[in-house]
Amino acid sequence: MATMAVEIDNENLSASCKADTRWAALSKEARERGFFVPVQPLSDAVKAGEWLMGGLPSMGALRYGPPCAAVRRLELTTGAGTEIRTGFPALSDFASSSNLSALLLGSGGELGRLSGATFKLVPLGRMHAVTLELPAGGLVPLVSEMLSKVPALYHIEFGVRQGRAVLRAIVQGEEALCALAMSKLEGLAAGAGAGRSEAPAPYLAASGAGEWHLPLGLVGGALPELAAAAEVAGIVERGRVRLKATPPEGMVKAWAEQGHLELRARKGPGEAGPLPALVKQVFDPHGSLNPKGPLAAEARKLEEAPAPPLFNLRPRMPPEQQEELRELIGEGNVTFDEYDRMVCSHDLAPLPREVEVVFRRLPDAIVLARNAEDVAKLVRFAQAHDIPLVPRGGASWGFGGCVPTQGGIVVDLSFMMGIEIGEGEQLAVCGPGATWKQVIDAAAKKGLTVGAYPGSYPVATVAGWLSTNGAGLCSYRYGTAYDQVAWVEAVLADATVVSTRDGPFDLTALFAGAEGTLGIITKVAVRLRPSPEASRPVAYAVDSVEALVGPLVALTRSPLEVLHIALFDGAHFRYQRLLGKHAPEIGGMLLAVLEGTAESVAEEERLLDALMKGKGAEKLPSDVAEHEWEERLYELRARRLGPGGVLGEAVVPAGAFGAVAADIRVVARELGMQTSINGVVVDRNTVALMPYFITDERTMLRSLGGAMGFVKKIVDAGMAHGGRPSGLGIFFAGNLDKMHAGPTAGLISDIKDTLDPHHVINPGKHTEMGTRFGIPIPSLLLDYGMALMAVLKRGMHDRLPEGEELRERLKGAKE
Question: CATH says 419-530 is which class?
Answer without folding.
Answer: alpha beta
